[in-house]
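Two folds, back to back.
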Amino acid sequence: MPTIDTQTRMQTAAGMTSKQTKPTSDPLGKDVFLKLLTTQLKNQDPTQPMEDREFIVQLAQFSMLEQMSNLNQAFNQFAHSQTADISQYSHMINKEVSWLNSDTGLTEGGQVIGVIKKGTQFFYQINDQEIPVETIVSAKDTSSQNG
C-alpha cells in the first residue's frame, strides 16, 4: 500500500503541487471583488439588509477598481509600443548607412544621427534628411574608425 508523507498532504491541502513551493493564488482583481459583492448580497440577513449608502460605496469602489485596471492596461500597452518601436531602430545611431534614393535610383550614404517616428513610420535622420528605414541597403559600424 503506497504511503503519502505529511508534507505532501499539507501541500495538496494548500493547493500546491510537488513542483510548486508556494500556494497558487490569483491576485485580487475586479472579478474577485464582484464575486465577493454578489456573495455578500446573496447571504445578507433579510431582516437587516445592507444600507443603500454601503451598497453605493461598494459599487463606486468596484467602478474605480475597474477603471484603474483598464487605465493601467492601456498605459502598459502604450509604454510597450513606444519603447519597443524606438528601441528596435535606435541601435543604428552613429552607424554609416547606404540607402537607395527612390527619386534618382542612386545609392547614397551618410551617418545616422537620430531616429524619428511619424505616425507609424520610422525614419533615420542623416544630416538634414529623413530617410525611411526600409530604404537602407547596408550599414557598418564607424565607432572603431573614430577611436
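---
second:
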Amino acid sequence: MATLLEGKAQQKYIITKVAGDHALTTRLAELGLRIGKMVTVINSAKSGSGLVIYLAGQRLAVSQSMAEQITVTSLDESENIPTLPLTNIPVHSSCVVYQLTGDKAVRKRLMDMGLTRNTLIQVYHVAPLGDPIELQVRGYKLSIRKRDAANILVKELQL
C-alpha cells in the first residue's frame, strides 16, 4: 500500500483508506474519493505540483496534501496474486473481483448486483452452516448463496 501521491502515471489503483480531519474527508467524499473506488493516475505529481486522476468518468486535479491522505493499492501489481473463488476468502477480509464464471444468466445476475471486475468486496459474515455469505459491496450489504459465490474469482487484498 502506498499513498496516491506516490502513484505512477497510467496505473489503476483502489482507494483503501482516506485519512485527515473531518472537513478533508468530507470534501474528498463529495468529490467521489471514497474507499473502494478505482482511480487511474493520468499525470503523476511533479516537483510540488499536484496530480491528475481519472475517477468515475471525469478528470480531477488533486493537490499534493490531499493525495498524501489517500492510501491506495495498485491493481496492476495485483496481477501476481493468485485468483481464488470468493468462498475461500475468510471473514472480514477484503478482495477485488477478477472474473465471473458460470453460465451467462448467472454472470448477468451477479453483475446486476454490482459485482463487476475491479470491485472491492469485504466478506462481512458467513452463516453458521456456511450458506449464505454476506458481503459489503459498494457501500451496501449483499447476501449471496455459496454456489453463486463460487462463480466469483477474486484476488485477496491486505488492507
